[in-house]
Amino acid sequence: MSSMDDRLNAAGRETGSAFERMAPLAVDVPRSWSRAVTFAMGVSAVVLLIAVPAVLWGGETVPFGGPGGPETPGVASTPDPTTSTTAETPSTTMAPAPVLACGFQLPFSVELPDDFDGPVDGASSDSGKPLEDSQLGVHWTGRQGSVEIRWPTDIAYRGEDVEATGTPESVSFILIGTSEGPQVFADNPHGFPDAEPGTLEGDWAENDCHVAQLMVYGPEGEPGGSVGVVGDPQSDSLVLRLAPTLSRWSELVVDSRTVDVVPDVIPCQGTPDEPTLSDTITEPIVYPTAAEALRAYVETRDHWPDVGYFEFIEPDGTITYGRPFEPDPMTAPTPDDGLVIAVSVVPRGDGWAVDAWESSGC
Amino acid sequence: MSVDEETAGTSTETDQSVPVVRTAVTFDAFVRQHGRRLVGLAYTLSGSRTAAEDLAQEALIAAYRRWAEVSRLDDPAAWVRRVVANRAVSHIRRRGSEAKGLARLASERPPIEVPAISAETEAIWAEVRRLPRRQRQVVAFRYYDQLSMSEIAEVLGCSKESVNTHLRRARTTLARRLPEGDLT
User: Fold this and answer.
1) A19 touches chain B (CB under 8 A)
2) What is the rounded distance in angstroms from the CA atom of residue A165 to the CA atom of residue A174?
3) Per-residue pLDDT reduced to its tens digit, B21-59
4) Residue A37 and residue B68: Cβ atoms within 8 Å?
5) Which of A25, A249, A328, B77 is the most buried (most CB within 10 A)?
6) What residue segments make up the domains of chain A, in order of their start?
7) For the domain B117-184, what is the CATH code?
8) Strand A145-151 relative to strand A136-142: parallel, antiparallel, unpaired?
9) Is the pLDDT at A264 greater than 90, yes or no?
10) Between β-strands A277-280 and A211-217, what pairing exists: parallel, antiparallel or unpaired?
11) Which sign does the torsion angle of CA B128, B129, B130, B131 carry?
């Protein structure tokens, strides 16, 4: 009998040799990138920096990415002194103009509900993080919180390995431009009742400036605390749905109820045959209260939300905390639709400890 | 524009602080060497013949955009593999690539012909694609790309222990879901 290792090896070898026999791949490099790369390699980076504002300072919204554009803004900010020529340097008799890597206007429009004031230049005070010198930043502020866009993204999000960060409540994501239009980098199927839609759409460039970073903050400045986002990858627009009040989602435990049976954890949406994930805790840590045990445990789990759990108290005293499935972004979630996370907490010694968990595994 | 028409990334620069003089490989040579295997990697992870070529194309174009930097990496292929692996397991991006692939079906340039693979191997990859994201990537790197644990750890930016753990869990799950003689 062959082991799984042997079978996988055989599958890998067969697949590898099959694709090796395939016709050679021809890469269709977009013409503008081809020119930009060639140009960037042959010419000093300082030239790239200067060419951009020359086009954009007129105030017109210009999709960025032509042959004069910076292929890598971070590189462009450290010009090679041996090739910095006076012919390319702004006149010293004029006040030096700020140089923004991607331009002075976003290449897309943003519409938010009327009670959002903006756009205002600069970073949102909620972000607590200043803009880089070469970064365009604008923000809007309303009673529901603030929305901030940075272009290009913070350095941490640049490159091809960008990942959205934060939990569904801590909305912190990347928009990425494609030939089909902007797409939300992170699938975030959240939205809230009575929300007012906003839209974001526009043309996208073909270099690092094709990625903008959008951050949302709640009324208390908490990341994404009161804002949900729905991205429709099938369309060219992103819809922002801003909830009038979502204080419930700022709490670890949002509701408590006594039940005979805890609702089931359901498989990932769209993959009904996908098994859920579960495990028991072999070395439980005891906390004074069940909620404290829950809080400590979710903090150890990547990508688990740290708010929005329902408490279910069973007849034997077991407490299960469940995070509800949210089938419809426009409808308030309810545990009756099933759970995506369940954490069982049991009495242990003088306190409570997490005993087991189950998740949809999405 | 095909890279056959234009060469990018040639460099003869030397770094005085580094004793070994490295010459960056040209982009078209890189594509000739790795392109087909990247399509295969995209296929094993995405399961979409339609999207596989576009996923590889997108990763190679991403490399082309910053070829001056990527070509000087110790292992440029590792960088591109990671891009393919990340894109192939991203639901949104996979759908986008499928859409582009379908659009291409109606265009002038014909799609590549993805080679035939045995039913058993197809079934194994289908189960691999049901694994959690990281396990999927580790299995594809280990068995399709034949990378060592250290190489996988480097590509994914994690520890060898983490790679081992993912691989062990993946094999356990696959052995349970794929009993011998039960492949269709």
Assistant:
1) yes
2) 9
3) 334 578 888 898 899 999 999 999 888 777 788 888 888
4) yes
5) A249
6) 31-88, 108-246, 251-359
7) 1.10.10.10
8) antiparallel
9) no
10) unpaired
11) positive
